[in-house]
TrEMBL record:
<dbReference type="InterPro" id="IPR010828">
    <property type="entry name" value="Atf2/Sli1-like"/>
</dbReference>
<feature type="region of interest" description="Disordered">
    <location>
        <begin position="79"/>
        <end position="99"/>
    </location>
</feature>
<dbReference type="InterPro" id="IPR052058">
    <property type="entry name" value="Alcohol_O-acetyltransferase"/>
</dbReference>
<dbReference type="Pfam" id="PF07247">
    <property type="entry name" value="AATase"/>
</dbReference>
<dbReference type="InterPro" id="IPR023213">
    <property type="entry name" value="CAT-like_dom_sf"/>
</dbReference>
<protein>
    <submittedName>
        <fullName>Uncharacterized protein</fullName>
    </submittedName>
</protein>
């Protein structure tokens, strides 16, 4: 005990005087250039940028299968040396021919930010691999080659896909890959969710890249289509995309999905492909804003508090649940997924009711998640009156950026907002009153206290919790947790990723992230896609049994259906 307390004090001293509050930690030195990836920060002139001057006409190339002859492929080559203008390299591209390899970049970009450092360190313990699953309906058969073409084009269009890491002056920096590498394979399976759970275990070589991959699955026999409800012939496929969480977040990945589907449709139809780069690999402006707030003592207090509640007391905030539902610590630590959705009619009614009650769908879902967990605990037995349920809400930190810099800014720009919700036996009978309380508390911390921004520098230090849980899992001991669950919500994807296309369209989107060593019991993943509310529960096998996870996920969906017609 004495040794642990001394360690806490030493950590606090380091946090006050060390790199978390060093203005140079996420900054660029004078005179250094950024490779076509930065955003001019009007609020902080310490971010030095040089923007390459691209030609007015974006390069294009002809898709495979086009009836025309070979067409030129032009692509910008971005050089990292100061003052070197972007070069154009021309390649001949003919239908049926592989895209030629291309040397692009290799220049230094910028140092890693707080969250990026955390994601990188956590990945060393098998966490922070994100997998997106797209179920494709195509009017024409698709081949692995066309998926490879599309993936190669995505590599050239989205700058975050070209990132790797290297050490520079004792710090980790982003650097653009010097050679083009695209990881695309076909999987012989029709169990998409099982493939996702396997791919969540994938590790990346962060210093060699690439930090993403593509997997292609045929869901119907080769060259055999199926008839939909309108008797149209469709060919069924799935594309799985994996991303290291340090180069992407939900906003970035949804943009990837939108552009990929557009590229795939253009390839299938033989159209010209717009090779203009999509957006920028933006610097973490939230780090600079957090440093400027300078809430050092609050930061140290919250850091030591989490060490105490999560490690020293073996997860006292979640003991109301874990004392009733023992963690299956003997299981191998992994992330598993359970998927549910509401149909279009139920989704429309639920959204209308949320609007009537003055809450967001995210707040209503959080209320349902809390009340379902409370109900499970109450039914398990033991005395339970009022108790606190702890939630970690994933926050898109671009909300705190200047408006003109928020769009098309790629990378990992998220943080977690930790909020507790007092919950009692009367709240189930007054769902919408409770949902309004949840909404008010979330809104306060997002707009008033801005806790997620204030505590942004703490993110990289939370690797101690990941490391601790990894050791406990290796020893087959119960995990240390200070939160019941995490919520990540992409909202309504109607404009972000509609999923429509003339030849190929997406019928379902699933997201999952390997977070089994995070200090929460599970993660809720939400979005509304093509009019349907889609929900998946990522549960961690060494923390919750499959049976309890299934009961929890189904209970939440039942609560949401009940809430549509629940009294005020």
């Amino acid at each position: 005990m004495e040794t642990f307390l001394k360690g806490c004090l030493a950590s606090a001293s380091y946090l006050i005087s060390g790199s978390p509050f060093d203005a140079a930690d996420t900054d660029l030195d004078d005179g250094e250039s950024v490779v076509s990836t930065t955003v001019n920060n009007n609020y902080d002139k310490q971010w030095k940028t040089t923007t390459p001057s691209f030609q007015a006409d974006a390069p294009r190339f002809m898709a495979p299968g086009n009836a025309t002859a070979a067409a030129p492929l032009l692509c910008q080559s971005l050089e990292g040396a100061r003052g070197s203008p972007p070069q154009q390299q021309q390649q001949t591209f003919a239908p049926g021919q592989r895209l030629g390899k291309q040397t692009v970049g290799g220049g230094w970009v910028r140092p890693l930010g707080y969250a990026e450092k955390f994601m990188t360190a956590a990945h060393g313990y098998g966490c922070m691999t994100t997998v997106y699953s797209l179920w494709l309906d195509s009017r024409t058969p698709l081949s692995l080659d066309v998926i490879k073409y599309a993936a190669t084009i995505m590599y050239r269009k989205m700058p975050n896909l070209r990132m790797e890491m290297a050490e520079r002056d004792g710090r980790l920096w982003w650097r653009e890959m010097a050679r083009e590498v695209v990881n695309v394979e076909e999987l012989e399976t029709r169990d998409v969710e099982g493939a996702v759970e396997t791919l969540l275990k994938r590790r990346y070589d962060v210093k060699a890249g690439p930090l993403w991959f593509t997997r292609f699955i045929r869901l119907s026999p080769q060259e055999q289509g199926v008839r939909d409800d309108n008797h149209n012939l469709k060919y069924k496929y799935a594309c799985l995309f994996g991303f290291h969480h340090n180069v992407s977040d939900g906003t970035t990945n949804m943009k990837f999905c939108k552009v990929f589907l557009k590229v795939l449709n253009d390839l299938v139809q033989g159209k010209e492909i717009d090779m203009c780069q999509e957006g920028t690999f933006a610097p973490p402006l939230q780090d600079r804003l957090a440093d400027r707030i300078g809430a050092y003592f609050l930061f140290v207090y919250m850091f030591l508090r989490r060490l105490y509640t999560c490690i020293l007391t073996f997860g006292i905030p979640v003991r109301n649940f874990t004392s009733r539902f023992r963690m299956p610590a003997h299981n191998e630590a992994a992330t598993r997924m359970i998927h549910h959705e509401l149909d279009e009619d139920a989704t429309r009614k639920l959204l209308r009711r949320c609007k009537m009650e003055g809450v967001t769908l995210n707040s209503a879902f959080t209320a349902a998640a809390n009340l379902t967990m409370y109900k499970m605990m109450a039914q398990k037995g033991g005395r339970l009156k009022n108790t606190d349920l702890w939630s970690s809400q994933a926050v898109n930190m671009r909300r705190y950026w200047p408006k003109e810099q928020q769009s098309n800014s790629f990378g990992c720009h998220i943080s977690l907002l930790d909020v507790s919700f007092p919950t009692g036996p009367d709240d189930e009978r007054a769902f919408w009153r409770y949902a309004r309380q949840v909404h008010a508390r979330l809104k306060y911390h997002l707009t008033e206290s801005k806790r997620a921004l204030t505590l942004q520098p703490m993110s990289e230090r939370l690797i101690i919790l990941i490391r601790h849980n990894a050791w406990l899992a290796w020893l087959r001991l119960p995990s240390a947790n200070d939160g019941h669950y995490t919520v990540t919500n992409m909202g309504d994807l109607t404009h972000t990723f509609p999923g429509t296309g003339e030849e190929v369209e997406v019928s379902l989107v699933l997201r999952s992230v390997s977070c089994h060593f995070m200090p929460t019991l599970c993660q809720h993943t939400l979005q509304t896609f093509r009019g349907r509310f889609c929900y998946s529960l990522d549960y961690y096998t060494q923390k919750i049994t499959k049976e309890n996870a299934t009961t929890y996920a189904q209970g939440i969906m039942d609560f949401l259906r009940y809430a549509i017609h629940a009294p005020n």
